[in-house]
Amino acid sequence: MKMVERGLTNTESVGQRIQALRLRAGLTQQQLASKANISLGGLRDLEQHRVSRPRANTLYSIASVLGLSPAEARDLIQVGQDYPLLARDLQIRVLGILSVRVDGMSVTFGSEPRRILLGMLALSPRVPVSIEALVEQVYGRRPPPKAGELVRSQVSRLRRKLQSTQSPARTSDVLVSAGGGYMLTADHSQLDHLAFERLVSRARRDRDAGRLEEAFTVYQQAIGLWRGQTLEDLPMLQVQSAVAALNRHQEMAILEYAATASALNRHDDVLPVLYRLIEANPLHEPAHARLMVALAGSGQQAAALHVFIGLRDRLAGELGLDPSPDLRDLHQSILRGELDGVSNLPYLPSAPSRQTAFTARPVPTQLPTAPRGFVGRAESIARLDAILTDDQHSTAITSVAISGTAGVGKSALAVHWARRVVEQFPDGHLYANLGGFGPEAEPVPPSEVLPGFIEALGGRPERVPAGLADRASAYRSLLAGKRVLVVLDNARDADQVRPLLPGSPGCHIVVTSRDPLLGLVATEATHPLKLDLLTTTEARALLSTRLGADRLAAEPQATDQLIARCAQLPLALAVVGAKAAINPTHPLAALAGELADGRILDALHDGDASTDLRTVFSWSYRNLSSGAARLFVELGARSQTEIDLPAVAAVAGGSTDHVRRWLDELVRAHLITEVLPRRYSMHTLLHAYAAELADGARLRA
Q1: Residue 401 has pLDDT above 70, yes or no
Q2: 76 and 88 both lie in a single domain
Q3: Rounded Cα distance, 549 and 78, in Å
Q4: 160 in the same domain as 72
Q5: What is the CATH number of the domain that holds 25?
Q6: 153 and 194 share a domain?
Q7: Are residues 211 and 194 in the same domain?
């Protein structure tokens, strides 16, 4: 039976085509469903257009019953898969340049901020993105006055642009207010990267079940959604790790697609997409391996060998590395014409894998020594453990941002936890102090951090690329397919961190900062972990590790006073513990008295800038805007440590909008805490520092 009989044109739906073929075969719906081992309801839904994209194995079963040839069966499946992947009412496409269609018509945006806002929201669908994060991405760290209102106005216009007149119910709530910001609620029929992820998951299920023809078709559909690199027309979003993760997911899908094609001996079909992959990733060893196999399998042995030589020269010239032993073995197999077992070699996985044999590189071990006397933080450690467990089942990189005030123990927690789990990262661990808050006025730029990481991963110093983008690309290439723990300590802001985020599933990143890094939380799906002051029990345990339980038990009242006057801040308690430890005969009550005489910061000074609270606090203060810095000082002039928004506005003498923006900045810097909506608190040591600044300002006036 020929598929070109009258009435079976390519413009017909798959349901119409199946119905026509069934009638010509003289079968009822019940007969066809029974013979094809599918439900009668499912067949009816298919013929009546209630199912737009039937599974390929269902169509294969129907084709077999109808006696179609393999070519005719593939044609039927192609008709089924040609149904539009994205709905007509709304299509948001980020897999390439940002593109939006509503009711089949292309939508244009009147401003670049609107495109940036939609790009950010589309990268994290169904996840609220805060106003602060949107403001920072659109306007940078020095936004104009009333930037929040500007963002709200742009979102309002954007929402109107996304409304369908043909399907208003499906698009009325596609962009909603949520969690103090906005959230895009588009589903897989409206947002291309969700459609891509859904198709790849389906292809993997087919492949794992041995349905390779179906898997090949679905992989082809998924990869066909890509029109370029993610949001390639919005360079300001290219540093987002969500963008890198999507690009990495595309790479993995292409490798799996090529593996499936190899198993089916359909090498020619994957050559174009593999060539595009290595053009975008010229140092990607697994991609080159797949291309070599496809070329050799399609009878192009010389071209396969040329691919190896090109990669070998680039690795030597740019990184000072040789191809991995496994890639060299593949080269030798192709030279000998031994292709029968090539497609099954372990470094050419047909399934996504955290491990790869491309690991003949040094294993970095850069973590500092675990902090001695670490106590408490059980809830935070449990949260970090849970995130890591979830990461082991994810196909994306996972990152955690530990934030908190100066001296609260962020770095100690990060290193302590990392040391506990280091055995779960067989490819090593990287560490860098980014100097976001410290004696130097400027933080360490990522372009200076990357050479150390590249060299630790096996790159030669003289071959490290010059520019930031090239260094980041080389870094990600060296991490491809590896399971590495990366600790980025003391970050200034999200922009400093983004170039240091790997693009490979399996890598796990822990960042510490005094800033909550809202940009990473919003656009990179980073898990936030706010670290608070120690509990009284934890503070007592910290002092006990330094002074011994007997000494604390001998002076319980003085111990309580020390804990209270140190505001349960770990750094202050550590300094007090050190002072008491070097004077073992001095009573703790005397030390507690020193902390109560009104010059508490002097009493906690130990001559070391890294532990001097006045100096440590100053590293946060000097990064404030002039308005926020002035407000911080004015709050120090008040005797109370708690205050509400109207009272702050009265003290500051400014508009509520300006004051709220300055308060938000102080909250982000962890110099104050918003204990309730519009009500703020400052712990006693920070208040003492602010009071000293206020005294100094009065003397200069």
Answers
A1: yes
A2: no
A3: 75
A4: no
A5: 1.10.260.40
A6: yes
A7: yes
Same domain, 92 and 56: no
The token pair at 225 is 């959604």
Q: What is the pLDDT of residue 451?
A: 92
Contacts of 301 (CB under 8 A, 6+ apart): 295, 334, 337
Whole-angstrom CA distances from 212 to 52, 69, 83, 218, 588 are 22, 18, 21, 10, 74
Q: Do the domain assignments include residue 246?
A: no
Percent of all residues in the chain with a pLDDT value above 70, rounded to a whole number:
90
* 474 and 551 together in one domain: no
407, two tokens: 């001296």
Residue with tokens 């000293």: 692
- Whole-model pTM above 0.90? no
Residue 607 three-state SS: coil
Q: Which one of 530, 562, 583 terminates a domain?
A: 530
Please give the Cα distance from 217 to 323 (Å, whole number).
32
Give the tens place of pLDDT for each residue, 352-380.
333 333 334 578 999 998 888 888 899 99
Calpha distance 610→623 (Å, rounded): 17
Is the domain of 513 the same as that of 563?
no
- Distance between CA atoms of residues 210 and 453, nearest Å: 41
Residue with tokens 């508009």: 655
pLDDT at position 8, please? 32
Cα 449 from Cα 562, distance rounded (Å): 40
Choose among 191, 185, 183, 205: nearest CA to 246.
191
DSSP 3-state helix, strand, coil percentages of the chain (rounded to 5)? 55, 10, 35
Say how far apart CA 348 and CA 255 lie, in whole Å. 8
State the Cα–Cα distance between residues 548 and 292, nearest whole angstrom: 65
Looking at the fold, whether 417 and 456 belong to one and the same domain comes out as yes
Residues 6+ apart with CB under 8 A from 50: 44
d(CA 490, CA 581): 28
Contact 172, 163 (CB under 8 A): yes
C-alpha distances out from residue 323 to 289, 296, 330, 339, 459, Å: 11, 19, 11, 20, 12
Within a domain: 350: no
CATH of the domain at 513: 3.40.50.300
Q: Which of 32, 55, 81 is the last residue of a domain?
A: 81
Distance between CA atoms of 293 and 15, rounded to whole angstroms?
A: 38
Cβ within 8 Å of residue 535, ≥6 positions away? 376, 568
Q: Are 415 and 367 in contact (CB under 8 A)?
A: yes
Residues in CB range of 336: below 8 A, 6 or more apart: none
pLDDT of residue 304: 92
Question: pLDDT confidence of 540, banded at 50, 70, 90?
Answer: very high
Q: How far apart are the C-alpha atoms of 453 and 114, rounded to whole Å?
A: 36
Whole-angstrom distance, CA of residue 109 vs CA of residue 100: 9
Helices of type H across 582-644: 588-594, 600-603, 613-621, 626-636
Tell me the pLDDT tens digit for each residue of 602-642.
Answer: 888 877 777 888 889 988 888 898 888 888 888 888 877 88
* Radius of gyration for the chain, computed over Cα atoms and rounded to the nearest angstrom: 31
How many separate domains does the chain show? 5
The number of residues making up the chain comes to: 701
553 domain-assigned: yes
Residue 513 inside a domain? The answer is yes
CATH of the domain at 173: 1.10.10.10
Determine phi and psi for 167, rounding to 5 degrees. -135, 65
Question: Which one-letter DSSP state was computed for residue 423?
Answer: G
- Please write the tens of the pLDDT for every residue from 288-326: 999 999 999 898 999 999 999 999 998 888 777 888 888
**425 contacts 535 by C-beta, under 8 angstroms:** no
The domain containing residue 680 runs over which residues? 613-700
Q: Six-digit token pair at 435?
A: 């100097």
When pLDDT is averaged across residues 88-112 and rounded to a whole number, the result is 88
Assess whether pLDDT exceeds 60 at residue 663: yes
Separation between Cα atoms, residue 333 and residue 341, nearest integer Å: 9
